[in-house]
Amino acid sequence: MGQIFQKHATQFEPSLIVKLKSITMRELFDCVDTIDKYYPQNCYLNLEQFDDIFATLTDNCIDLFHRLADQTGEDGKLSVHTFEALAAFAIFSGESFETKCMFVFRLFDFDLSNTLEEQEMVSTLQCAVRAMCKIAGLVIPSVSMLEKLGYVCFQMMDEDKNKHVDFDEFYEWTVQYDELQEFMLLYSGTQTYQYALKRMINVMDESEQQFNKWLRECKAPQVPAIKLQQNLYQIYKGIDQLSIDTLFYMIIEYTLRSKSIGQEDSSQQLKDLWAWKADHKKNQHLLQNISIKKSDYLDIIRAWNVYSITDVNQLSIINIKDLKLLIWLYEDEEPDYFRINQEMSIIDTNHNNIIERCEWMQYLCSEESMQRRQTPQVLMKKVFDNYDEEQCGLIPIIHIDKLLRDTFKQQMKKMKDFKSIQSVNSLIQQLKVEFMKQVKKNNQSHFDWQQYYQFLVEATKTHSSLNKLLNLNRD
């Protein structure tokens, strides 16, 4: 379809966009009531009428009027199309993308059929795109070009070819249209979960490639802590040092905690880490024996990247409206209203109604938060990764006995009677024999995580005590 939104002109004002983002849908519906009551026949509004309707939304009505105005009538006076104005305020409001779409959809559903017909779709596209370009200071496409585009878009949205587009069809198309999503992100600070997820996948790919580059430079299976620290300062030059130090500390602590699962206690290294945190310069030498593997790095950098994707203005501040997307991206599950408010009260430690990057990272690093994320499957995977010395995803079958014992090590520590411990040891022997039969049957010398995990899941069906030990039904 080509580029609808051309390169922007110099009229773009971020401060104006920030002000418009404070508008709520309830305030906009009050403006609609004013139009219905006093200007029901007005397709166009002069400056006085525009100010009368929208003065409650902004203290900058004159500037907005001139941005949206066209010369109309024989006298050539400036006026604003009523529907363009409503579309503009809705699109640049602080509401969710779905709410904005619903408002625009209903605005042009002239026959109140809960669907858009072809001509209604053309009007929708013409008014919405022109309004967006005017506010953002972009080149405004011609009416004829948008009319042609409207017909094409209608055919694309009308999947069942019944000559009507319902809201689900309309919304699905707008979500999948990347050019529109890029515009909404850049100029209105709005993004859908779907588009944010696309961006997140790309950023995580870049993070993995970056770490692979460091591995090649180090010529080692892991990156030394001091080298990682230098690299983080280099790639995040524009971000404050406290945030980078918090990120680095989280990566190191997470690495040491991962190593302590299923292996000998690493309390001395944790003590060294705390000493380093207390005085970075004096205790820099304490990091010399610590190195980071890729899986640990990616686990933590994911939290960092989620914040960056959500922080569309790159100001390192997120409000409660953005918190939903932040949690949704991180946990891959949409949080409800009560969860969002609960998390806001926990994360916002200085009670300024803003979540700063450090607050987010420190919240995820808290013992309570880490324990909540440590599902049985995650813990088992960490034990598995400790035996993946080559970081190739495969473990030699000769390690199966130690791997099984380390998988159950934490549970066995909690047992006080010898009989229970003996029972687990007996179970481990049985599982070892069964697993060895499976891999030998397939002529395998190595096995991967998926095979190991699936084996344990299947084994819970024949060993009743296994499910209780692993607590797999918690996943």
TrEMBL record:
GO MF assignments: calcium ion binding
EF-hand domain residues: 153-180
InterPro entries cross-referenced by the UniProt entry: EF_Hand_1_Ca_BS (IPR018247), EF_hand_dom (IPR002048)
Name of the protein in its database record: EF-hand domain-containing protein
Lineage: Eukaryota, Sar, Alveolata, Ciliophora, Intramacronucleata
